[in-house]
Design a protein that fits this description.
The protein is an all-alpha fold and about 180 residues long. It contains seven helices and no strands.
């Protein structure tokens, strides 16, 4: 005697496992179906309530929704997963920043790191300021008039020659642009 296709299928172990799982989960499925039925009943009641429909209709019309707005909304909804990832990343950065701001050891380490970068710059600034002060003191202390031979002697100095080349290049460039 030959078995019909349903009997053959029922004798397979995978089918028997699926039936057992279905029977185990049947109460949950029933509860979900009842909940779905309640939502459908609620939807029907709302659609039959003309007063509620009129309120929602007035509310929607007050927003002046046109096709462009709806398309923009759909486009935004399509991009929500990516925006959500970006917001999560930004939130992680903010949490990290807040954790650092509330951790004295991290703040001290950051301050020390910044100081290692700023100290050389600050030192160069101090040396430059000291140089300017020294030049001012010498200029005010020397009351002797400058002679033409002194100026001619200066012209032989390499630093004066370089400065004069910069002045000449600046004047040439300014004459071309003006």
């Amino acid at each position: 005697m030959e078995m019909n296709p349903i009997q053959k299928q029922l004798q397979q172990p995978e089918t028997q496992e699926a039936i057992v799982k279905l029977l185990v989960n049947l109460p949950a499925y029933q509860k979900n179906l009842e909940t779905l039925g309640e939502w459908i009943d609620f939807g029907k009641a709302v659609l039959q309530d003309k007063h509620a429909l009129n309120k929602y209709d007035e509310l929607i019309r007050s927003y002046n929704l046109d096709l462009e707005t709806v398309e923009a909304l759909i486009s935004l909804l399509e991009k929500l997963p990516r925006l959500n990832e970006l917001v999560k990343t930004l939130d992680n950065f903010l949490q990290f920043g807040e954790a650092i701001l509330h951790d004295d050891a991290s703040l001290n380490y950051a301050a020390a790191s910044l100081k290692s970068y700023t100290d050389p710059i600050t030192e160069k600034g101090r040396r430059g300021l000291d140089l300017v002060k020294d030049i001012q003191e010498r200029a005010h202390a020397d009351s002797e008039p400058i002679k033409l031979f002194t100026i001619l002697k200066w012209l032989k100095e390499p630093s004066v020659q370089q400065a004069l080349k910069y002045v000449q290049a600046t004047l040439t460039t300014l004459n071309k642009t003006v």
